[in-house]
Amino acid sequence: MKKFDVIVIGGGHAGCEAAHAAARANVSVALVTMKHESIGQMSCNPAVGGIGKSHLAKEVDALDGLICKIADYSALQRRKLNASKGPAVQATRIQTCRDTYKLKMQQAIDAQKNLSVMEGMVSNIILDNEVLRGVVMSDGSKVFAKTVVLTTGTFLGGKIHIGDKSFSAGRLGDNASNALENFFKKHGFSLGRLKTGTPPRILKSSIDYSLLEEQGSDKNKPCLSYMHDHYGQTPNIISEIPCHITYTNNETHKIIKDNQALSPLYNGVIDSVGPRYCPSIEDKVERFYDKDAHQVFLEPETLSDKEIYPNGLSTCLPEDVQLSFLRTIKGLENCEITQPGYAIEYSYFDPRGLTKYLETKKIKNLFFAGQINGTTGYEEAAAQGIIAGINASCSVRNIGMWCPNRDQAYTGVMIDDLVTLGVTEPYRMFTSRAEHRLRLREDNADERLTAIGHKLGVVSSERLLFLKNKIKKIKAESKRLEEIKILPSSKVSSILEKKFNLKLKNVQTMKSLLKMSDIEYKDIQELESFGKTINSDVGHLVAIQERYEGYLKRQDQEVLNSLKTQNIKIPEQIIYNEIKGLSNEAKEKLSEVMPHTLGQASRISGVTPAIISLLRIYIKKHSS
Amino acid sequence: MTAKETIAAISTAHGKSAIGVIRVSGKNVLKITKDFIGSELKPRFATNVKIRDKSNTLIDDVIVIYYKGPSSYTGEDMLEIQSHGNPITMDFILEQICDVYARLSKPGEFTERAFLNNKIDLVQAEAIADLINASHISASKAAMITLQGNFSKNIKLLIEEVLTLRANIEACINFPEDDSPENSNKNNFNAINSLIAKLSKLIKSVDNGIVVNKTPIITIIGKPNVGKSSLANLLLGEQGSIVSSTPGTTRDALHHEVALAKNNITIIDTAGLRKTSDSIELQGIEITKKSINTASLVLYVVDDALGFDTEDRALITENKINNYWVVNNKIDLTGADPTMIKISNVSHFNISTTQNLGIDNLKKKLSENSVPDDETTGTARLRHREHLKSCLENLYMALDCNNNLQLELVAEELRLAHVSLVAIMGGDVNEDLLDKIFSDFCIGK
Fold first, then answer.
1. How far is CA B135 from the centre of its chain?
2. In chain B, residues 152-211 whose CB comes closer than 8 Å to chain A
3. Pairs of CB atoms within 8 A across A/B
4. Which residues of chain A, if any, have pLDDT below 50?
5. Which tens digit of pLDDT belongs to each residue from B16-25?
6. Is residue B32 a part of any domain in this protein?
7. Within its chain, how far is the Cα of A149 from the centroid?
């Protein structure tokens, strides 16, 4: 009889992080997947990171997760986005080789102790008097476990559309997924439908690059993982391949418009909701009819470089229409399609059915992570995966579960949004969702999360030492710069006036100069009184802290002011119907979401400060 | 447990009265006494204090009492300021306190603190739930009154403008590789300055709107020369409008505040309604029509000799007047009795302004009819002012950051400015922003 502490179903980005994290926490884990060779598959565009997304990915890395390290190993192009816009909104993006990514991910999974991969399909979940016991495989065999993490992406009711053709598609066989679907239906899980799409893939040798703009890596080749970015380790790398940029034109748009009726998006076949931030080319042409051109990024798919992913051209027009509009685009005049673009409809579970630990409210010890919760993107999936994996292991070890707060991590923002508000379109991270954006930066996810991860048992002691060393260096350099005084009459002062038009009125320190928006660490390094330091590698981090110090203090005060109310826990057994004075609408909404804290309750739409006051009094009264 | 923030509110019912009480609770109480009085106060002793504005003009002569926590209603340090019961004076004092030391209390917050500090027991707490909810309902009702008309329209316009600017900046930050919009330092500068100008104007209008906003409004209308101004003057007890027997003397709508049996009422005396080609008089009639819209009750005055005729009925229908009383003036000439009768649910009063007949009865009914106003109307307005002020502060900060080319900090200040405005009008900061971004810009690399 097979017995584990944790079973993770699904080997995508959520599943890999969940399984690996639980195994790092020293519990026994089985990763159940259809095929070992599809573990770590990148099913959408071949890139990791980007604005908001690299923030999530780096938080996974700060908890010693896989996604950043693997992306660094498989980088074809590495860029820093928003480099001119201030450190809090800067982001890293890496174009990756799909094949390398998958391979390295499989190696990481295979090498992890406590973690076994099982090939097969899960057809049912074993409940014994409402207690979760394990899963049934499609061959009838049983695998027992204390906890189960479900990370099966779009397996429920996947349906692909290309022109007037449509067919069921899920990575699991229909029978198995029907059986599982029936299980969840029977237990009252609420399901919704979403839609997303992909562009056609193009044969690289059929593209004429001679007239196209090339985009290579940035000079300093940024990395995603703190191991490589801040802790001085060098990743194994592969050869780089640039991206290229081209544009659609009026002729392209005309073909798309003329054939609009053939697109299932427009002829009523698809009525589920797609993401507004990732519209199909049909949508772009229809909604922004006054634009003469839309940008297309030609992204390399793999190191062997045979196929190209034309990012920006998601479509589900018939294949011949796809080809004819592609051929109007500069550089693609003679292109060949290797795989047509399509739209896919799929089902997801309403994430309001989850606690913030990603455990289902209906069945204890069952966790959901990734796209089945209505999100999109590898980074969003990975971040949920690592939280679900950690919490499944916590449950096994009988220690308290954990989820970061909104002022602690983008991961916390995402999970709070999901379990409080639910989704109306595939959820993607944007930095504008985070009210603590100036605090939740790419440069400090490790300072925010690594020590917590170590306590939870998913971060190694070696990794914690790297962090401690970084913090020590930052503190030392910060202190050193604070002790270097600059007098208004000094030679340095006159240099500052000449170079930055900065007239010193009082005595300044070398550190306080970094508050000025146009003075960077490298600028003060050139000043005579700068002196010598062994910590210049963290100098830019000192500068970032200095830039935001005032803002963060103000926010700290705000957080502190609201923390007392925000963090008051609402007892799980609360019955809203019994609370006098609550409106029926409030009762209904609160009962549906079942918020963990007053802070979460206050974010539910329609919940007013007066309702929060009421709850606070009710809780206080019933806790004593 | 001691709450962090100091809170303040007017605790007596709104309206003119002999005295009014402002309560403050929290750790800043000692600072306030120090700044207002300059010496330490002995707990539970009444002290006479003069309150002055920035230019040292005397505002009011008040009594202050200091309660040292935990021996106070809330269990915290508390201050009770007994001022004269003039709403303008009380607002002024409350504003002074809230500008620096405290924030306006939320509905029921004093009682909540009392409960949380174990000053009242569970049985009493049972009642609080209803109390908070009740005051919340009236607070939102009051907010609705203030939010009707131009004020809310202006706030909506401001929100739209902030949203447009934020969508532009956030699209640049979140989608730098898409066909995101032009964002220039200069455009931001202009947009923020335009917001500052509009907001400053709005804050001024909120400051000036103190009287009219808060009291029930009674508008006196009727054909020319039926005695509208004479009636107004009698109700006011002084010479307010110019009274003459030339039809069309009152061309402006004249506002007067009057206290009838403790309740403040604003009386608007208007130009007579008639067909005319005189352009100045036409303007007056336009103003009258506007005054009709703001009124909570219309007094329709007619000459008793002519009676309430079809033309009068047409005027009532035409101007969509729902809540009105008919006042038959000049009964001294017709010899009718000074009585009140109801005809198809409309009250008809017989009066004579020249002989002072039936006036007392009318006053009495007006007083009964004006619903006593509560604390919340005033606090709702002060709350708005507080949000508008913090919004203005954030906009000035945003301007600074923009000058320093720190776009992410401009974005942060604008977010806070947006949050302040939404706190007045309601709305979802994040979702509205994403909606705006995706409808204005083609995003989707």
1. 17
2. 170, 172-179
3. 127
4. 171-174
5. 677 888 999 9
6. yes
7. 18
